[in-house]
């Protein structure tokens, strides 16, 4: 089981050094401010080409997380149109650094909107996207009109994007804290996700500070929160996909979480 790559979300300035500090196989990071509509920025001293070369030499896999503000589903033109542009910019930047994939949240529509509009907006966005790097859509924790909080919405989203050009290449990123907080039982969630998407490409392994169906996205270190440890391990074993922890505590806290995963995945 430890053949599954395990890593963490880290600072973008030197992801390779951050990987070494955590004994991580892979790293995920932002390219710029995650709370901004600004274009991606490569903070690594050697630029995109240097980062790609350094990651290859170190044997570290790279994943890029898109800004949180991207919302291609919304009916608000002032958000949706810049979001489409930004999504393409981050796909291109992720490709330039040699990333395995770009992870993006599925977004939401306004409270009184028909969610079908959001699903179709995703179809249109994928139809226009030049997919130089794989895109993984991540489930989210809260929001009654979210595109990917609950599995019934994820099913409709996948149906919509499946009809877009290149839609069959879109992958899925499963966040354990988000599904727990979003009201989906973790013990069986991988089987149910795969019945919809056919795949899980990346797992965000996070414990939760809050209870089941709370709608709150507050991560905790593994085996310290409200998620049963065996449920979290079941997700990873069933997904058979690379794993990233997005947990607190910096290098020390995340290294402990990575070590915890390796120990318990090996124990079975």
Textual characterization of the structure:
By secondary structure, this protein is an alpha/beta fold. It has one domain (about 5-265): Alpha-Beta Barrel (TIM Barrel). It has helices spanning about 15-20, 45-60, 75-95, 115-130, 150-160, 175-180, 190-195, 230-240, 250-265, and strands at about 5-10, 25-30, 60-65, 100-105, 135-140, 170-175, 200-205, 205-210, 220, 245. β5 (about 135-140), α5 and β6 form a beta-alpha-beta unit. α5 (about 150-160) packs parallel to α7 (about 190-195).
What CATH calls the topology is TIM Barrel
| Number of helical regions | 9
**Mass-distribution shape:** globular
Measured by DSSP, the beta-strand proportion falls in 5-15%
Rounded mean pLDDT is 96
The appropriate CATH architecture is Alpha-Beta Barrel
Integer tally of domains = 1
List strands and helices in order, with pairings:
Layout: E1 6-9, H1 15-22, E2 26-29, H2 47-58, E3 61-65, H3 77-96, E4 101-105, H4 115-128, E5 135-138, H5 151-161, E6 171-175, H6 176-182, H7 189-197, E7 202-204, E8 207-208, E9 219-220, H8 229-239, E10 243-245, H9 250-266
Parallel strand pairs: 1-2, 1-10, 2-3, 3-4, 4-5, 5-6, 6-7, 7-10
Antiparallel strand pairs: 8-9
Helix pairs in contact: 4-5, 5-7
Defining key terms:
alpha/beta, globular, eight-stranded parallel β-barrel, TIM Barrel, two-stranded antiparallel ribbon
Structure summary:
This protein is of the alpha/beta class.
């Amino acid at each position: 089981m430890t053949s599954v790559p395990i890593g963490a979300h880290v600072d973008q300035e030197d992801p390779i050094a951050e990987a070494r500090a955590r004994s991580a196989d892979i790293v995920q990071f932002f390219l710029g401010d995650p709370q901004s509509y600004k274009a991606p920025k490569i903070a690594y001293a050697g630029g995109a080409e240097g980062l790609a070369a350094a990651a290859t030499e170190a044997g570290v896999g790279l994943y890029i997380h898109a800004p949180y503000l991207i919302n291609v589903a919304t009916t608000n033109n002032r958000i949706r149109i810049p979001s489409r542009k930004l999504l393409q910019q981050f796909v291109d930047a992720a490709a330039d650094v040699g990333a395995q994939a770009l992870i993006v949240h599925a977004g939401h529509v306004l409270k009184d909107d028909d969610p079908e509009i959001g699903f179709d907006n995703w179809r249109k966005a994928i139809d226009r996207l030049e997919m130089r790097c794989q895109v993984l859509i991540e489930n989210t924790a809260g929001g009654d009109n979210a595109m990917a909080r609950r599995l019934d919405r994820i099913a409709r989203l996948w149906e919509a994007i499946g009809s877009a050009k290149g839609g069959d290449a879109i992958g899925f990123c499963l966040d354990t804290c988000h599904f727990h907080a979003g009201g989906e039982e973790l013990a069986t969630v991988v089987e149910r996700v795969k019945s919809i998407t056919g795949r899980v490409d990346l797992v965000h392994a996070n414990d939760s500070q809050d209870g089941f169906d709370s709608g709150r996205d507050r991560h905790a270190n593994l085996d310290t929160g409200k998620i049963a440890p065996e449920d979290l391990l079941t997700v990873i074993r069933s997904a058979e996909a690379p794993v990233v922890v997005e947990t607190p505590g910096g290098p020390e806290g995340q290294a402990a979480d990575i070590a915890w995963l390796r120990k318990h995945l090996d124990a079975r």
